[in-house]
Request: fold
Amino acid sequence: MQVAWATRAGGSANDIEPLASIYLATSAKDESGSIKSKENWFLSIAPLFSSPCDLAGRLPALIADFLDLEISLRRRFREESVSDIVVATLLRAAGPDLSVQVPIDEKITGNDFDIIIFDPAKRSAVQFRIQAKRLSPHASNWRMGSYKELAHPHNTGTQSAALIRSSAAERRILTVPLYAFYNPARACVASGGAIGGIELADGHAVRSLVAALVKAKPKRLPYKRLSTLQSLFFPLTTLLCPGQAGAGGRIATPENALLAVRNAIEATAERRGAYAIALPGQVDVKGKSPLADDRSTLLDGELPPILAVALSARERQANLIRTKVSRPKIVLFSQ
Reply:
């Protein structure tokens, strides 16, 4: 699937008409759903956002509208399609202050990606490992919408465990596991603005919820409901617009981005009560808080290969490259 975004000159996010502004063509994926030519797919995204911060504020509404196209097109968009849009729009929004690294094998596609904020001058970096899930809306009660694949695959929770394990294994760059929840517009509207098209959540808290779900018998739907997860949510702007990062299109510093995300996670923990997740059936799950991880964003020794490759690509003005990565990696250069 190939997606191009456009809007009327001078238009705002509210002016965007989703059915008129989103063009779909079945040319970029083969029968298995794998992307045939990711470079061409990325470059087909029309410039729309002035900076990553601008994107963080406006893209969620566009994603929500995009997901609502399912009704008229009679097809379901998977997390992979939405994550590809996020990566592609970031590629255009950040301009020369970004490097996107994608897997050499074009058949490798998934619903997770990394956002790395890197300050070359200070040799400082933080990585956010993001696992995506999309909402299946309820017909009449938005709170009963479900993230059906939360315990993927097959309610084993293996995917969420891998997210936490792989993040902890990143010894060279401080890595924070997060979830991105994609929500269709009909659910966002029904909520009265309580949720947006993209909501982030602490990976550790979601993992503790999934672990409880895996142990539960039977595997009851309330564990995956929006009403259960909503209090964990915080907006994409937390990561991409901390402090005054949006002014003049500047990228946040690694320290500011990390602090903003940690503060948001702490706030959601307080809402749930002492980092406890109240689950249906009178079950409480204690999450292992990432707030206790006080590792520095400063880098020791040689630059990690991901950052070295990103710097080299930046010098060549090549901000989209194929390399030996298992998931797309978005490197934002802090100024």
